[in-house]
Fold this protein.
Amino acid sequence: MSNPVIRGVFSLAKTACEVMRRCRTLEPNIGNTGSTHKLPTGVFMSTQDKAKGFPLPSSVKVVPGTEAAQAAYPYHIQFAPEDDQKFWFYNSMHFPEPMHAFDMVTAEAAYCALGAANTRVHCLPTTLGIDHRIINGRVYIGGNGVTDPAEIERRTVEFQKRAFYYYENWETLYAQWKVKMLKLIDDARALPSPTLPEFEPLEHVHAGRGVASNHDLLVTYQKTLEGYFRMWHHHFEFLLLGYGAYLVFFGFCKKAFPEITDQTIARMVAGIEAEIFRPDEELRGLARRAVELNVDHHFKEGLSADAVLASLSEGGPAGKQWLDSLAKARDPWFNINVGDGFYHYHRGWNDDLSMPFAALPDYMQQVRDGKSLHRDIGKLQEERVQLIADYRELLNSDEERAAYDQMIGLAHRVFPYVEGHKFYCEHWYTNLFFNKIREYGALLSKAGFFPEEADVFNLTHYELESAIIDLMNAWSSGSPPRGPSYWPPIVAQRKAAVAQWAKHDSPPALGPIPDVIDDPAIVMLWGITRESLDNWLTSGDEKNSHEVRGFAASMGVVEGTARIVKSVDEISRLQRGDILVCQVTNPTWAPIFQRISAAVSDIGGSMSHAAIVAREYGLPAVVGTGNATSKIKDGQRIRVDGGRGVVTLL
Amino acid sequence: MGGKGGSLGELTRAGIEVPPGFVVCTAAFDRFIDALEQRAPVRSRIEVLDSQDLDAIGVVSRELRARIEAESMPDELQREILQAHARLAVAGVAPIVAVRSSATTEDATDASFAGLQDTFLWVMQPEDVLARIRSCWASLYSVESVSYRRKQNFPEAGVAMAVVVQVMVDARTAGVMFTRSPTTGDKSVITIEGAWGLGSAVVGGEVTPDRWVVGKITGEIPVRDISDKAIRHAPAPGGGIVDVDVEPDQRKAACLSDDELLALRAVGRKVERHYGRAQDIEWAIDRHSGRVMLLQSRPETVWSNKDAAPVVTPKADPRMHVMSIFGGIK
């Protein structure tokens, strides 16, 4: 494998392209002999590399004082002695921060569904699923490759019966998927808010309902969890097949045009009307509407979203009209959250309007300045067609052109799913899910189980069920629940543990170094290659302490003041012309791109949303740096070279 | 007409901005050598040489070069050249020219023969132009040229040299450009190298040029390597070239703007389209007009001669392509 530029660990759900680019060569290493010996997991370990390997899982100690919080995670995701035999890496792409106890459900459900799709549904020939473990709040994962040639052959037959059916009937199945997904969303929206009346409502009694409200408490919780696990199954129904088809085209381009940029390949494949653009487009529409209706003066810099809303609702018919437009845009397009769907505190726009409202005044100014905020879809489409034709013409032979047509055809076929699913899964559904859990948090905190609604996320989903049952029983028996005396110290302890863990760095990987990473899921989804591991091992060298490297996401060179923005609350700190330095790149942040001069992120690839938006705005961007937010100081002058993926600290 | 001369004429006709000039055709060379042959043999002296016998080549080379430099041109030829030179004058100001060889064997796709003949820059006086043309002709009999021809077994009768006399561009920045990547052969990028001053510093390797990779189709500039350019070539007061130290604040500054890079890309694409194949181009940015001038263009030879196997061949079932990812096959 000859991929030189991996750093950090990458997203499964993020996007295909960022991953694909790392897979220039996906060379199999079946039957590898030489100085390697085979481990049960299909990971090869070279004898000479033992000296400079990663720490073994068993050598990683739980941060003192957090043992009880660590023990709260389920037994089956705690590291065990036999895990020392296997290679693990820290999934800092999806889980860059320590996990609260409840939030681990995101890993549990995702890996459960990913593995089912790979191992049992599509039967990927060379890989099974992914194991996950947690220590000090950090999620480590390890793949299960298939290396026995006979088994690969057997699975290949199955794979072609299954996956090829999907490729053949992609549009039909994807249309069906959307129906299924929207039904799931409707079901989740229809779930009642958990409440316990003092007396059962009379109409329930007269209707002969036969179950009491405390039963609904459990049923709604179980349905909430069931829907969430189901959502992840839907999520992985197409995902790897989609990534794989895109990767084929990506790999071809990299061979035929060795110096082609990832952005260009992305532009050839990416959709123009994809769901990811919609929230920002809605926002631009709202800005235009506000100017049209002459209500834009209500948006004063520094005014809270609530204050603006109040001022508008008293702003006569025009204000009301704008509020109607807002309501329309919000459902569903404000159902995007400010993260990637793995943390309860990454709230959606609908739950916290401060992000979209922070962007509105700038958009309105642009409208007043006569700028068109409209994306010319027709023109973008023409450009894409031309781009594809121009590259096609450069190929060496008609034979190559025929293969190119086949591969880009396949990539175009799968891409609407690859781009579109996140809005429905990681954003819309995930917001509904966490909000429902919050409702339980409110109910339990009112019953004295813990001080605040959000404290509920310090219970695992198993524990939450027992707390709900505690409350159900108490409502039944008339005795006080046990929770109020049981949970408060535990919740306090776990909150302290998460804060502790956040201060501790975690090794990027654990266990014996594999000679080769030949598991397509790991390479595709996380971009992990042998080279990336070597980079991690040497990343301690401080050779280039004035430089931060990442993926070249959007062309251009800009110098400016770095502004480290760790959460949405800090967005107002961005001055016009600042360079945004953030952990996660995310579609929610799109509107603030009009205010900044460049973007740098810890996590993300060239097809991550911020990269796409940066290109739309023509801003330089370097993403997936791994450590920009810790290495760069707030207010420091930096130079961002988005074409080379280099940030220089000046 | 030799390689460079022919190419430049074509480019001018194709609407690409090339500094004005004229070509002293191979017929002039033939007339000159014929006159020389009448006094004493020239070509037959070469044809008997052994390519390995550098001593013998050295002796013959010195003798022939001295004869060529000393021989005056036939009157009519001299008159024609001086007239053509005078026509290059702008507003009565005598032109400053480059005199460069354009051998028939040079710049051919099959043999990258560049650089074996001499180029004379910033030639100011008409009589110097005549002398430099003779020097070009003489360079055809240098030890390197002769031993190269003997090795390749080129018949001497087919050897001739045209000489290009072209108005010098007083270059602010100059360099070379390849319309496919010299390192990977990628046809979708243009590689541009440039440095301050005249391009001879870049071509001669006397300065590490700035280097850019520009997307041929997209116009994006993914690679920008700005180097420390300590010297530049500048015109010497009496003609010729001198090394000048680059001002400290300019040494590490990019010698081309993005707009200029894109203008060069446009020229490169035009030239490539005109010839239907990848080109190796010398260019300059005029210090006064700021315009991109093309000094010469020849076919790229390294990658063009490699037969690339198809990256991937089409499959009866397009879905089979995914097996390269999922099936663990290459």
Chain A has 20 helices and 14 strands. Chain A has four domains: 16-65+78-166+509-538, 171-260+406-501, 275-374, 547-649.
